[in-house]
Specification:
5-formyltetrahydrofolate cyclo-ligase; 5-formyltetrahydrofolate cyclo-ligase activity; metal ion binding; Rossmann fold; two-stranded antiparallel ribbon; FTHF_cligase; globular; seven-stranded mixed β-sheet; NagB/RpiA_transferase-like; about 20% strand; about 30% helix; about 200 residues
């Protein structure tokens, strides 16, 4: 199974990395429109707490969406790798002037400020990156397991929040993913072309 997952990961990353700058810009704009539509369908008009990420490795660009959320008085939070266990994530408030630093993967994250951390259950939405997704809401990440480990209690305790949403380019869709016991399925996946719901 691990070889299957590695092969899918390699192939979908290749497709994603082949997108042109113009295709990425169009996709980022469409993502903003589709997530705004999703918020309307959820009757969320203002002051939502949204966990999101800064794009890396040709992931669907979230920069326009983040600015749009700020303009509509929603609060955004970025993941920070836990400073002690190094395997789970905190979510810290992110604003235009937030002090940032690169983590061990070279991805920018806010400098740790415990007063700005939002407990997972207090987020309304958690927008997650992924490498591939399938017809059943299963998500394949980069392989580090950060989100799965962070969300391990989510399924067991049946939390009502946050709503888990994957963000991806349409080319990252596959029919079926080989799933491990620790994988947490998603209720929604938003691409520039479509909003999937299970």
């Amino acid at each position: 199974m691990s070889q299957q997952r590695a092969t899918i990961r390699q192939e979908t990353r290749r497709k994603r990395n082949s997108l042109s700058n113009n295709e990425q810009k169009i996709a980022a704009s469409a993502l903003k429109v589709n997530f705004t539509q999703h918020l309307k369908l959820q009757k969320t008009t203002q002051n939502a707490h949204v966990g999101i990420y800064l794009s890396n490795d040709s992931e669907l660009d979230t920069s326009l969406l983040i600015k749009d959320l700020w303009s509509k008085n929603h609060t955004t939070y970025l993941p920070i790798i836990h400073p002690f266990n190094g395997t789970t994530l905190y979510f810290q408030r992110y604003e235009e002037n937030s002090p940032m630093r690169p983590n061990r993967y070279g991805i920018l994250e806010p400098k740790l400020n415990c007063s700005q951390i939002c407990p997972l259950a207090e987020l309304d939405y958690l927008l997650m990156p992924l490498v591939a997704f399938d017809d059943h809401g299963n998500r394949l990440g980069m392989g580090g397991g950060f989100y799965d480990k962070t969300l391990a209690r989510y399924e067991k305790e049946n939390w009502q929040k946050p709503q888990l949403i994957g963000l991806a380019h349409q080319c990252q869709h596959v029919e079926n993913l080989p799933i491990e016991s620790w994988d947490v399925p998603l209720k929604f996946i938003i691409t520039p072309q479509k909003i999937y719901h299970w």
